[in-house]
Design brief:
This protein folds into two domains: about 30 residues; about 80 residues. The protein is of the alpha+beta class and about 140 residues long. The chain is elongated, with a radius of gyration of 25 Å. The protein is about 15% helix and about 40% strand. It starts with a helix and ends in a 7-residue tail after the last strand. It has a six-stranded mixed sheet, with no helix packed on it.
């Protein structure tokens, strides 16, 4: 009878252990997952603290791992270390990093793709359109 209880207890511990492993593996902020980490420097980071949320294109992507003050030349900057914990995000190296305030006084760090360069039309050049939804620009020379 005691051997039977021992086997059931052991089976229960194994099942609970497997469930915990699967749960931790499925969480996006998994402490054992491989992480991308980089730093960004700001002049103003009101509302940013360690563990503040980081989003990439509006999706939760990670958190702020560290906030520290550094001197760069004659001015102090705030250096944030950002840890990306979400898997399968292909973040380009020219990402735009912004501090975005929330309604509650906290802030998040938003990672966005850089804005495309503006196309300037030289005087005398035209923009033509065959319908209201499409605009075809045909510049012949670059304007500084």
């Amino acid at each position: 009878m005691k051997a039977h209880n021992y086997k059931l207890s052991l089976l229960g511990v194994i099942v609970v252990g497997l469930l915990v492993v699967l749960l931790v593996k499925g969480v996006s902020d998994n402490p054992w997952a491989s992480q991308l980490s980089f730093s960004a420097k700001f002049t103003d980071v009101r509302g940013i603290r360690e563990h503040s949320n980081v989003s990439y294109l509006g999706l939760p992507a990670g958190h702020v791992a560290k906030v520290e003050i550094v001197n760069e030349g004659d001015r102090p900057l705030v250096k944030t270390t950002i840890s990306i914990t979400r898997k399968n995000l292909n973040i380009p190296s020219d990402i735009e990093v912004r501090v975005t305030p929330t309604l509650l006084g906290e802030a998040t760090i938003a990672l966005n793709l850089p804005d495309p360069p503006l196309l300037r039309i030289a005087p005398g050049e035209g923009a033509t359109s065959s319908d209201a939804s499409t605009l075809a620009v045909a510049p012949r020379k670059k304007v500084p």
